[in-house]
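Hi R.,

Here's the chain you asked about this morning:
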Amino acid sequence: MKNSRVILVLVVAALASSCLAQSEPHHHDAAETVGTVSFPISCAADTQAQFERGVALLHSFEYQQARNQFQDIEKKDSRCSMAYWGQAMSLYHQLWERPSEANLQLGAELLTKARAFNAPTARERDYVQALTIFFTNTGKLDHHQRADAYAKAMQGLYRRHPQDREAAVFYALSLLASGSGDVPDLSSAKAAVAILNNLFKEQPNHPGIAHYIIHSCDNPAMASLALPAARKYASIAPASPHAVHMPSHIFARLGLWQDDIDSNLSAIRAADKMATVHLHVLHHKVHSVDFLEYAYLQIGDDASAQAQIDALASIRAADLDPEFSDYLEAQLARGPATYALERRQWKTALQLDPLAGTPPYVQLVAYWGRAVAAGHLHDSAAAQDALKHYDDLVEATRKGNKPYIADDLKDEHDIVRAWAKYASGETDEAVRLLRSVADTQDKVGKRETELPAREMLADMLLDMQHPQEALEAYETSLRIDPNRLNGLYGAAQAADLTDQKQKAAGYYGQLLKNCDGIRSDRPELTRAKTLLAAR
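And here is the predicted structure, written out as tokens:
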């Protein structure tokens, strides 16, 4: 699912840049496993296996490797139309980020070559024509309009070639990337997963099918439906760090923290292996570290969470492609803010400083953290200061080279406004703002490592001494984002205050079960143990 959260935008913005021309040798281990794909083409016979490997890599979003593969095919058969289609396809990261102007131009040039060599089959020509629709008319149609047009073209291809399973898979992906991919009724996601589930039964080792089922269901309402695909995907394409990481999207949605941790530790090992053949993989590690910090915090393993922040801080900018610099900067900003807020260290969060020399959409992370902390501390002056800086940085983002990021900040901006209102005593408006964001998140989901707005609302209601309303909000939040440490503890507190002792004991018990075996100084765990022992 597409998600309108700024750090996800920064993730995809960084990743999207990775398809610029590479100078590295096109190494790959012949024994590596990237999944099984059947995509017949009419090019030189000795390129068929390479082409299917390239498509398999596309399906796991290993765009650099995929492009390298298609370039190798071009060298063997310069008249292979589908080699140029594959290279252009590696520039269109449908669930990540819109292509740069340079990549749009390059994609259009590649597809011009593909059309010039006029593939001998109507099916291949249809693939080329569908993608051409996205890479052309850039002056007349915006990104979302071209994505919608591409999805419509893929629908036509899918219907004209019903025996082509790859057409079905690519069509499902185009639905997820279309302009309606994140509407509250999840219609595109449901249509995509209906296609994919049937294919999964027939092709259980296809990397794209499992992958796109996970993306289709990466929302609160559907996450549990993707658990079989999540448990399978890593074994389908263990050579892909992204494939090994992706199951953790579902594990995080379902509060399966140890599975989440294991998935991302494995993804980092896969990235390290890829690094030995000089492929750009550090962005994979940064992404997995984000998930690891969040998961460790939910089981009270603060030392391991801090270790992830330290690991990020040890990364030298020179070791990362320049295209990924703002992604690393974003995580360097987000990591300490999340750590402080999850541990409820409000005074520490109030001292967060923006990273100097970074883009405005990175600097505003500090003011988001400050605003939340100031709200909890009822510090109106600090909250208003944080809001003022946040407003200014959103406006600077809107005037910068990635203005669309400002639009994706709306919900987070409302959260900042809500805590500023709360700190100033405007509690009704604060509750209204948070409830509105929470209602949206309940339907389409939050970013997997984001603090839930519904839980924030519950915190606010509990602070306002409305424990029954708070309990209802905590319980709703826990249904949407299960097994969060602060959600369980808050629900237990609210249940205690409403004299629902058995319910409180259940939440305290689940909290301690999640954190069993962890050495932690979290006061929430100490209090839970004390209260349960006294019952």
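One quick note: Residues 257-275 form the longest helix (19 residues).

Cheers,
M.
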